[in-house]
Fold these 2 entries.
Entry 1:
Amino acid sequence: MTLLIRYGRYLLLGILAAFAFTTLILLFAGAPPLAAYLHLFKGAFGSWNKFAHVLNAWIPLTLCACGLLYTFRIGLWNIGVEGQMMLGAVLTTLVLRFSAAEQFPLLFLVLAFLGGLAGGALWALLAGFLKTKGGVNEIFAGLGLNFVAQGLLLWLIFGPWKRPGIASMSGTELFSRELWLPVLRPFRLSPVGLTLAVLAVIVTALLLRYTRVGLSLRAIGGNPRATRLFGLRPGLYMLLAMSFAGGFAGLAGSVQVTGIYHRLIPAISSNYGYLALLVVMLAGYRVWLTPAVALFFAALNVGSIQLPMMLRIDSSLSGVIQGALVLATLAVHAWHMRRQEREMNR
Amino acid sequence: MEITLRDIRKYYGLVRANEGISMTVRPGTVHGILGENGAGKSTLMKVLSGYTPRTGGDILADGRPVDFRAPEDAARLGIGMLYQDPLDFPRLTVLENFMLGQSRGLFLSRARYRARLRELCDYLGFSLVPEAPVRRLTVGERQQLEILRLIALGTRVLILDEPTTGISSDQKEALFRALKTLTAEGKSVLLVSHKLEDVELLCDRITVLRGGQMTGEMDAPFDTRAVLSMMFGAPPGIPPRSRVTPGRPVLAFRNVSAPGGRTGLISCDVTIHAGERVGLAGLEGSGQGVFLRVAAGLTRPGQGTVTLNEMPMTGRDYHAFRRKGVCFLPTDRLAEGLVPGLTITEHFALRDRRHPFLVKWTAAFLKAQDRIRDFRVKGTPDARVEALSGGNQQRLLLSFLPRNPSLLLLENPTRGLDLASAHWVWEHLQGYGGHDPEMAIIFSSPELDEILMAADRVLVFFDGRIVRDVRTDETGVAELGRAIAGDTGSIRHAFPGHRRPVI
């Protein structure tokens, strides 16, 4: 716990540094920094409705980030999380397109989520097999599979699953209302997605701390060769970690399809996968910090949407802040570690 | 320059590597630092060379307190350290390495430095070719180069960490002569060693460390007995070797060839019986490592069959071997045996299989505490394994061994251990064999003495083949030494299985 608090201090320093940097950029661009931050804040927390939007972004981000905690533990860079989310979305859509779906909406929604889980996990396992059996670095395998997933998505939307008459970038046809995830009126926030994300955090925390799986993942991340002598199979655990990561990412895809867009769209992943990588890094790979950082990132994303309207600043400002934040925090952390080491030696 | 250390302390987390060490190194002398592995010698030298900051205490140079933040600060004062593995640049030539850190300005004047290198070489009696690439040099020559470089940089206090490990006897003589030359002109030398022989030849004064603390100081001539008792407490004796008649076959190799290492393993035919203790001799990397890994199931043989307890095991993986009671202890503990970043408790938790899903943290902690006491590991359950010294890491690894394995495979089990720790390891292993005549031990070692002491049978490896297979009481250092060098004496011995001819 004290370690968590200590890391929180680096995070705070990182945030200060990142905002100093962003302020400079805003000044350089000729925009009023204070007004920009105010709008950013209002855009995210200005009303309950806006906060619901933030939570809607938080759900997929947290699901992906939880999955990434497993792969980071074992020392894998699962950059393929984007593609895994897309495949989750594809399989969810596939299930919901059955004509029987409208008669048994509950059953098919459950099946759709299971499909999403399976789709993401299988796509991740593909990268995992390429890594463990083929000797392909998981970063390249994941990146390659991301492109393949995007291609598959576009092909489906413009080919077999195109809307009657016209194929369009706006995606497949909307599902009928029964197949939309229920939302909390008057907000467009789905309690199912929220519950899933919260559960993901709790399950991940317990699994990593109290089970053999969690310990084994960390041990293999530390020294795969030695763990063989302890009777562990590093390859197997890598596949396990990948399928966990893919499964969570796939669920994120399911939530986006059933709860937000109610159809499959080309940008179904909204780059939440890549963003989740930053979230986990910024959280210092710590479970309990991850949802907090995810909330912050979600707020930045949602808050920046109205910047172009209000101040004629591009909404990519949120990306600048997020990137600067990760780099600044990592730098602060490294600097503190060095200083601490020096202090400990004194 | 006179260096005085006053109450030096150095803690790594919970481990007290140095505790209250005080000594004075007078100019023009060779001062020995003696102690077993993990006694704190290397730590003390790292503190003195500015490589690690100290936790407490003072360093005085000619009576003035000094403070180092980095090796550069120590170097500026004239303190230079020669590391066990010289810090040089293998891709550069001798001259280029020599010039590094010395040359100033944009243009390099090779001619000037070549002359300087030659001059220093002559002075210290070294023979180095300036244009030779460093990667072609032996350890001894690289050491000479590093000494020349340090002296050229103005080093007045030279620290040498185990300098006689891995160099030839000629090079050792040259080194000792050079050190005498240096001390004659008023420079001082700090010699870190656990070899009594070196110390007796060279040192004017010694400081002995044990467990991070000073246990004594002595001026030449040294009383060996007293020094030993300062190093180890009580002088170690040689544990008796128990005699067991070989039982049923435990491990059988039939025409096994496998890739790996420098030479691989070629057409290996051998049977190991229950109760036997077999030493693998040979130059490092002559196939012993591959042999052990094939026997452990870590490397799959390219051809031939492996039988374990009369069950064919060819092509099975490590886990299948493990279930059959095979246990392998690798030589590179941190790279292959332990997980850096994990604590001792976490290692025990990792091994505990009683609950398939949950980790029993309390049980693991108690077990760690237990084994730490039984195996006399210096460290707490919460200590990370990389903070332990080599000897303590080995003790920890030994504490992981199951109670009754059928085959114990040890790769160089006493590497980097001092006499007392090595003695302890063998005593422990002997306890194993004594309890269970059904178990076989196979170990590799570069020390023939160790093999002759601990094994009852020896296999000599040369270029990936077993060239000699003989009982230890029927052979000696001279004969084995010839076999290691590739001289098998009689062709018959190249084929194990044939008995030694009775003359």
Entry 2:
Amino acid sequence: MKLTRSLAQTFGGKQKAALIAATVVVGFGLGFGVAHLMAGAIAYWGVVSGPFLISLRVAVPATLIAGITGVASGYALAKGRFPGRNILETIGSLPLILPPTVIGLYLLQVLSPGTQVGGFLTRLVGHVLVYNVIGCIIVATVAAYPFCMRAARAAIEGVDPSVEQAARTMGLPNWRVALLVTLPLARRGIAAGLTIGAARALGEYGATLMVGGDINGKTRTMSLAILDSFTTPERNTMILILVLMAISAMTGVGLLGRTRS
Amino acid sequence: MTDALEVAVARKIGEFELDVAFTVESGISVLFGPSGAGKSLTLALIAGLIRPDTGTIVIRGRLVTDCARRIHVSTQERRIGMVFQDGLLLPHRSVLDNVALAVRQARGSRARRAIAHSWLERVGAEELAHRRPGSLSGGQRQRVALARGLAGDPALVLLDEPLSALDVEVRRELRQLIRGVIISSGVPAVLVTHDAEEAEELGDVVIAYNNGRVTGRRSVARPHGPEPEREEPERTESA
């Protein structure tokens, strides 16, 4: 109480004092958390760095691929007038609903060189698609895609069609209307979808385990490493790093969607 | 001499039936009538934003719609400029970009921006060039929309109640500007309004509309005052 009173006297007003006290407490908490994280990261860097880098190698391209295909298909679903649009959206959204093990199983059947489809794909690409980082990227892309596609469709449908019509009267061809008008006006919703997609790509582990195989130094992502080190002290460090990565991804993609006015 | 526009179209939307035929020449032709008479629908048909059920549309001698022969030239290919009631400027682009994007007759961003600048000057909005549409007043927005409608060297400019969302003072000021700029540009225009005073002040010809039909047509007698001289729009060669 004395401290509050003296703070109130110093800073003029109880509310201000409470705000300052709260800021100090939160600041200490954050400082301690960051220090703990840094200490953990230094102590366990040897263990943590491998999965950390693999997670980046998987999540970044997966988010990019899911973002591009998701926005393109979201645009087609929002603007196209073809039969079966809703069925296509449902199929594209299946990874949202199905358990990761089922997705993993199907992907394994499609990608494994031992199956007909997988064998064909392997010959086509000239590279094995399972039990390596490519397999992990495919899984993370499949996991992130529905978020990107659904958010893009909703955001594109939300763009005022009369502004697009106005752009057409300016002589802009449809592809330029899409690039210069529709997508920039839908960018907030698209960025929200990319953010969740990035977080999903980063956190995916069930199907990754089945298709990637949890190979140390090759396909063991942070999520898989946390599962493996459940009883070891580096677990907390990895969780904190994962949380920070997710926050960074969300902040970064969120900034892309900011509107200048 | 070829008419600037020949329209003979019919279109049914729900219970409403539009069935109109008229021609317009150079100058400003006003489609005048009460709300819901089909004036804006006619503009949308001329612009190619909506397809008629039957009929033809010819802009400056070029057939752009012929339902019988299944001809429907896209909005982009019609070479029209359009000024909407609420401007409909692209909210995420600067005023200059809004006008420059409409410039068809020049290649290269620098050439397009030079033309856009000259049009902004002509409508008295050059100081707004780097502002966003969201920060403009209604009158400023319509000035920019007028510049955008004319900047693409259109064969025809369509104005859909461009002043109806503005207060009386701004309307008066903009009426003079619109007439002056359009007449001096030499681009034929079709303007929609339900305001008799506006029709009288802006139009060379007034085409009366009611309930989806053309009910009359008359020329507006203008006192012999100085009409704005026709200026050739600036043409910048491809960069």
